[in-house]
């Protein structure tokens, strides 16, 4: 296994140790979350009891293939814990997510969870959010108008680079599980994430964005020196 995959798996294994029988779990999306789902599948195959809500169709398919019992947020009103990856995390465990395009469902599931745990390799830790392009999920209707307003807002917040419509393949836009589009905003650094979050959500065509602020209370970050548990009190 490549080094970075091994680190992701180590972080996933640490999070798995927090899971108790009977828990209601949110399952994240991405290559790190995939390791967690794989490990959880092994536990379920050995008789472990849990019920899970996936944050994407991809994760749902993986979980089903491993016979992990699935439910949804119509049936379950709260979850005990969500385990997910991140594109970036800072020392306060504020995150950028959505590199895999699942940010809307990820945010809904994390918001319905008593605890959000992030698993990551050390390359995701940053001093200031913004190195990774911020995914902004937008409605397909009125894309041009929405894009112009988003461009104004991100420029006012100091974006250093472009605003790009994410593509699945050259010339065809990436579509989220909810049927929306994603604009990736290149900041470099985001100096006031709270204000940026508010300003983006004020735009009519914006469905959600990838800033997860004060949502994550615990993270397992794996480096060659071992897995570090980071935590913050967001109450
Ligand atoms: C998907 C996400 C992922 O958690 C994020 O992109 C990290 O992915 P990976 O573990 O593959 O680096 O937010 O929408």
Care to describe what's here?
This protein is of the alpha/beta class and 235 residues long. The chain folds into two domains: 3-125 and 213-224, Rossmann fold (3-Layer(aba) Sandwich), CATH 3.40.50.1360; 134-208, Alpha-Beta Plaits. It has six helices and 15 strands. Strand 4 and strand 5 (95-96) form a beta hairpin. The model has no long low-confidence stretch (mean pLDDT 97). It binds ribulose-5-phosphate. Ribulose-5-phosphate binds at residues 28-33, 84-87, 97-103, 106.
The CATH topology of the largest domain is Rossmann fold
Helix content: 25-40%
Query: What is the mean pLDDT?
Result: 97
So, CATH architecture of the largest domain?
3-Layer(aba) Sandwich
Computed Rg: 17 Å
CATH C-level class of the largest domain: Alpha Beta
Poorly predicted sequence stretches spanning 5 or more consecutive residues: none
Q: Reading side by side through the largest sheet, how are the strands ordered? A: 2-1-3-6-14-15
Total tally of structural domains? 2
Could you give the order of the helices and strands? Answer: HEHEHEEEHEEHEEEEHEEEE
Present as ligands are: ribulose-5-phosphate
Percent strand equals: 25-35%
Query: How many DSSP H or I helices?
Result: 6
Main beta-sheet annotation = 6 strands, mixed
Gap from first CA to last CA: 39 Å
